[in-house]
Amino acid sequence: MMTVQYVPAQDRLLLRLCPVKRRPNKELGAYRVWWDREGCIFAVDIMPFTQKWKEFKKGLRTARLGGIWKGVIITHEDIEDTRRELLETLEARC
Predict the structure, then answer these.
(1) CB neighbour list of residue 11: distance below 8 Å, 6 or more residues apart
(2) Pairwise CA distance, residues 19 & 93, whole Å
(3) 16 alpha-carbon distance from chain centroid
(4) Which of 1, 49, 54, 89 is the most buried (most CB within 10 A)?
(5) How far is Cα 73 from Cα 76, in angstroms, rounded to an integer?
(6) Are 16 and 1 in contact (CB under 8 A)?
(7) How far is residue 48's CA from residue 32's CA, in Å, rounded to a whole number?
(8) CA dihedral sign of residues 90, 91, 92, 94
(9) Which residues are CB-contacts of 40 (< 8 A; sequence separation ≥ 6)?
């Protein structure tokens, strides 16, 4: 029994892979997850789904930087300048 249920009035998405009769094993903010002793996931509940979906789609084209780069924002202009410098270096070698 695999079901995907979206409830617009609650903005809730519930994915059930197996029947669930007890409380979730873990609740992390907007997410609730049910699993068994072997770690197999039974169900996932996301409760403001549209907000989390927008955050997920927004994060698809970005990479989180860590270490010495943590907090640094790389702009499109930075990328274009670096490309130009690299092309100039390559042309100088040829």
Answers:
(1) 47, 48, 49, 50, 51
(2) 64
(3) 20
(4) 49
(5) 10
(6) yes
(7) 12
(8) positive
(9) none
CB contact at 8 A, 75 and 67 = no
The reported pTM is 0.55
Q: Band of the pLDDT at 93, cuts 50, 70, 90?
A: confident
DSSP category for residue 4: E
Which tokens in the block code for residue 86? 């690299």
One DSSP character per residue, 23-73 reads --SEEETTEEEEE-TT--EEEEEESSHHHHHHHHHHHTT-----GGGTT--
Tokens (6 digits) for 52: 């989390």
Which tokens sit at 89?
Answer: 């270096």
List, for residues 26-61, the tens digit of each pLDDT value: 998 889 999 988 888 999 999 888 888 888 888 777
Domain ranges of the chain: 3-93
Kindly state the tokens that stand for 33.
């997850």
